[in-house]
Specification:
With 470 residues, the chain is of the alpha/beta class. Helix content is 46%, strand content 14%. The protein has three domains: 121 residues, 3-Layer(aba) Sandwich (Rossmann fold); 163 residues, P-loop containing nucleotide triphosphate hydrolases (Rossmann fold), CATH 3.40.50; 142 residues, Helicase, Ruva Protein, domain 3, CATH 1.10.8.60. It has 20 helices and 18 strands. The strands form six sheets. A five-stranded parallel β-sheet has the order 2-1-3-4-5, with helices on both faces. Strands 9-12-15-8-16 form a five-stranded parallel β-sheet. Strands 6-7 form a two-stranded antiparallel sheet. It starts with a strand and ends in a 7-residue tail after the last helix. About 4% of the residues have low confidence. Bound molecules: adenosine-5'-triphosphate (ATP) and magnesium ion (MG). The site of adenosine-5'-triphosphate (ATP) has 16 residues, from helix 7 and helix 15.
Length: 470
């Protein structure tokens, strides 16, 4: 079921633009230009979200906000403010607005706020967590390409860079811990480039034995070595006019690094046992989960090759640094495994969600994906439960132990950061619990915690907690 949004703006063209953007994204939208009709409309339509302009001749946005706070405390209100009027935006937040957006609109921002707000609202009414409809893309052959899921500021930054660099043939170096989505990003760059109709060829530099890697990359001619009964093009040639993805590039043997560098510089390759060179036009995307600069410093990776590859560096953040994406990712994976496994999971037990949110995810998205697959497969009813979680994740749900992990104390200069983060996790745990017990009622939750309503709202904003946790 799509979420319903009530848009209130006396300027017809603003209302029109907002409405069109929301409708296109699948929201059910009701629009009014005369704010005097607002109260009746909210009553009649019971929207999941109200988006209202601040300055309006009859009833203004603040009054609508106050009305909603009093009569529909669960209903999120998003304020439209003119660019530069930060003060009114802040006072709207203090009076309980879910968020604000500034004119002129950024479509991405509007949609991401609207999605967050409606999702929160549904959850606060104890409805199943809304599963975001994945925008599945397909490649030239019609096979579905995994979309990149996640709207956190960190991911938005990544999307921006992808959008900017994709069209040019620039070399890209993607770094990030294991399972953060390096391959998916490489594919995204390829599919957004004008090479999309040409091949995307992957070489896993860690998986090919060093004796075979040269012939894999550059191909061979008949009789080049024992067993070379025919000739075979290498991955460079196969990727001609397309993209060559050099995965785990840090693990390429040293003598191959020299040959790779030469191929990149000269844009020519020689098949093993061949006599002539072949011109190739490939875009290179390399990836590694190692710290390449450290590999260079310690003499395991050639510095000149590093500079060749590191033209545009793209660092993918670990999942624990962008926990805001967890809801969306979990929803996305549940949906995917529901379809694949013929299941109908549609809810998550609040305690289970809290644990998933606190866990450190050393294996990042891949680990999350595997866990959700297993849980969906084994779920008896339509709910993922705390009991079904593996122990390490359960432990995360019961709060961090006082001890730093071995990784954390590896670098003592992390001290302040980590302590702050732990404290935030602890605070988040209490706040979420209070909101859960009061079914998302901020006033009552604040009372329980001994905070002022305003104080709690500011903390929620700071910790990225939405009004109600499932
Ligand atoms: N933003 C994302 N949205 C949805 N799925 C994602 C996202 N990022 C990664 N995944 C999924 O997580 C899994 C791991 O991604 P990927 O293989 O791209 O990671 P990687 O960084 O290359 O990992 P490794 O270092 O282990 O090779 C894949 O199944 C991928 O589809
Ligand atoms: Mg990978």
């Amino acid at each position: 079921m799509s979420s319903k949004v009530l848009v209130i703006d006396d300027e017809k063209n603003v209302a029109f633009v907002v409405t069109a953007m929301l409708q296109k994204a699948g929201f059910d939208v009701v629009t009014i230009n005369d704010s005097r009709a607002a109260y009746g409309m909210i009553e009649a339509e019971s929207p999941d979200l109200v988006i209202t302009d601040l300055m309006m001749p009859e009833v203004n946005g603040m009054e609508i906000l106050d009305h909603c706070a009093r009569h529909f405390p669960q209903l999120p209100v998003v304020m439209i403010t003119a660019h530069g009027t930060v003060e009114s935006a802040v006072s709207a937040l203090k009076r309980g607005a879910f968020d604000f957006i500034t004119k002129p609109f950024d479509q991405q921002e509007l949609l991401s706020v609207a999605r967050k707000a409606t999702e929160t609202h549904r959850r606060s009414r104890n409805e199943p967590i809304a599963l975001p409809a994945p925008s599945l893309e397909s490649d030239e052959t019609g096979t579905l390409v995994n979309p990149l899921v996640g709207a956190s500021p960190q991911m938005q930054e990544i999307y921006k860079v992808i959008g900017k660099i994709a069209p040019s043939p620039t070399t890209v170096l993607i770094t990030g811990e294991s399972g953060t989505g390096k391959e998916l990003v490489a594919l995204a760059v390829h599919t957004r480039s004008d090479r999309v109709k040409k091949p995307f060829i992957k070489v896993n530099c860690a998986a090919i034995p060093s004796t075979l890697i040269e012939s894999e990359l550059f191909g061979y001619e008949r009789g080049a070595f024992t067993g070379a009964v025919g000739s075979k093009p290498g991955r460079f040639e196969l990727a001609h006019e397309g993209t060559l993805f050099l995965d785990e590039v840090a693990d390429m043997p040293q003598e191959m690094q020299v040959k790779l560098l030469r191929a990149l510089q000269e844009k020519e390759i020689e098949r093993v046992g061949g006599v002539t060179s072949v011109r190739v036009d490939v875009r290179i995307i390399a990836a590694t989960n190692k710290d390449l600069e450290k590999e260079v410093a310690e003499g395991r990776f050639r510095e000149d090759l590093f500079y060749r590859l590191n033209v545009v560096p793209l660092r993918l953040p670990p999942l624990r640094e962008r926990r805001d994406d967890l809801v969306t990712l979990i929803g996305y994976f549940i949906e995917r495994f529901n379809t694949r496994l013929g299941k109908t999971v549609s809810r998550i037990e609040p305690r289970c969600f809290a644990a998933l949110r606190s866990y450190a995810w050393p294996g990042n998205i891949r680990q999350l994906e595997n866990l959700i697959e297993r849980m969906v497969l084994l779920a008896d009813a339509d709910m993922l439960t705390y009991d079904a979680l593996p122990d390490p994740v359960k432990d995360a749900g019961s709060g961090p132990s006082g001890n730093p992990t071995p990784e954390e104390i590896q670098d003592l200069s992390n001290f302040k950061d980590i302590v702050r983060r732990r404290m935030q996790d602890l605070e988040r745990g209490f706040l979420e619990r209070a909101l859960e017990e009061t079914e998302g009622n901020v006033t009552r939750a604040a009372e329980r915690l001994g905070l002022s309503r305003k104080g709690l709202q500011l903390k929620m904003k700071e910790l990225g907690i939405q009004k109600a946790i499932p």
